[in-house]
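Hi F.,

I've been meaning to write this up properly since the lab meeting, where we talked about keeping a consistent format for the predictions we share between groups. The idea is simple: the sequence comes first, exactly as it goes in, then the structure tokens exactly as they come out, then a line or two of notes. No screenshots and no reformatting. I'm using this chain as the first example so we have something concrete to point to.
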Amino acid sequence: MYNKIILIVVALILAGCSQQENETTPVYENKIEEKNNIEKTANTIYTPNYTVQNITVQTPPLNASIKTRDQENVTLPGCNCNSTQYCNYNKTCKAILSYLQDQPQQKNHALDIVIFIDPAANYSDLTDQRAFEVLEITKKLFYNKTGVTIVVREQIERKALGNLILNNAPEVIVVFSKQETAGTSGGFSFTSEQKHNPTYCNEFELVTKTQDNVGIAVVNWHHWYARCGYERQGENLVRTSQIPNTGECSNNKNDTCMLRQDGKYYQCASTVDNLYSNLDYSTASTIIHEITHTLDRDSYGHFGQIPGCEEERNRYANQNDFIRASEENFNMCPKTFDLIQTRFNGC
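Output, unedited:
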């Protein structure tokens, strides 16, 4: 199953090579599976098929409402930098990588992105407009952390993954899909070789330590963050309990399940003030998380990961402060962001 899915997704990368749809799929390497150390729980297709009788519908108390995209935007602390600088993880100003707007993709000093939507995912609320809105959040957050510009191409593709031909490959492809661990953990990433296109050049050196491959971020749209009271039955998530099931809500059985204001699902009440409760923010963060994995040549990995980022685990005595800091950094080690500019080699 794993190999089958990979072969399908790799068909995205047939870049600039006049390739036919039935041509042999190129070899790829370095799939980076996403298993966050901060709880980001599963979402595939929600079917309101309650198997526990008389589940009481809960509504959030007034002082614990969960933000939706119609409320104020998430703002994060920063520092006062000028237009040629960005604020790094130590809250100091560092030089940006200047975007050359009038130059072609392989010369524009930017991370170019193409968006694909997997029709098999059956996302009922994922329109092109909503995808672009979340990518706008992604661009802002990524620039503020790295000083690197993301350029999103205007056309979004909705096709079966095995039938996609990409004539001009970007630095990164973002695929909204529920395949593999995207459906269960929120996302995963890997890189694909460009053997069929000798002229391709990625302006950034990826984790493969080469510039002839594309980074691929597979992300579940509006992944159910901190779900509560659900079990997976086949492809569906089914609500089976009024209290957290094993593995939910950080295994805190004293937590309660609360219906979100948007009505999408029941969430752990202890998480309602977390940044990732805003599903636009969490989706944008997961995109950045997976992109960063493809650029993390030093393997710093996740926020607080041991080894690589253990200093963040030691910095916060309070678990809530640790989670807040982790989500401000998209669950990635902050040291990685300053190094992304060093991955820019140009073409």
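Notes:
Helices lie at 2-10, 128-146, 181-185, 279-295, 310-315, 319-328, 335-340.
The chain has seven helices and 14 strands.

If this format works for you, I'll send the rest the same way.

G.
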